[in-house]
Design a protein that fits this description.
The protein is α+β, with helices and mostly antiparallel strands. It has one domain: 2-Layer Sandwich (Alpha-Beta Plaits), CATH 3.30.70.3580. The protein contains 5 helices and 6 strands; from the N terminus they run ββααββββααα. Belongs to the antirestriction protein family.
Length: 139
């Protein structure tokens, strides 16, 4: 069952997209091949056990989406570029990876679509039970 994250002010649900193969073009736009490659590349660099998992795509009620590994086990992360080391759920890990890829596409490819998705996903991440860990990993 996909995660549901709530606050008193905002309720946005993460819903599994059954055919995740069709999700990357809508999330990463014309840069979907780059976005997918970066997603798996960053994930494997930050958490070595990521290769053991299938990735799903979740749509969120504010029009964006994110990828996350299918796992009930926590992920140990080490992000050398910002010094973050921690443990988080597969869902939170997927949000961190997806937001990082979207931020790259905004900065390097000047993608307006990625900017819109990044801001929507950032709002969603703020409602997540692991919001503090997510934002520490992104700093």
């Amino acid at each position: 069952m996909p995660p549901t994250h709530q606050t008193d002010v905002l309720c946005i649900d993460g819903n599994l997209i059954p055919d995740s193969v069709n999700a990357p073009p809508s999330l990463f736009g014309q840069h979907y091949l780059l976005g997918e490659g970066l997603t798996l590349g960053l994930a494997s660099m930050w958490s070595p056990n990521v290769y053991d998992h299938v990735w799903d795509t979740f749509s969120i009620g504010n029009g964006s989406a994110y990828h996350a590994p299918r796992s009930d086990d926590p992920f140990h992360l080490q992000i050398d570029s910002n010094g973050y080391t921690g443990v988080m759920s597969a869902d939170a890990f997927g949000i961190v990876v997806t937001m990082t890829v979207l931020r790259f596409l905004v900065n390097e490819k000047r993608s307006l679509k990625a900017s819109i998705h990044y801001n929507a996903l950032r709002s969603y991440a703020g409602t997540h039970p692991e919001a503090q860990e997510i934002f520490q990993a992104l700093d």
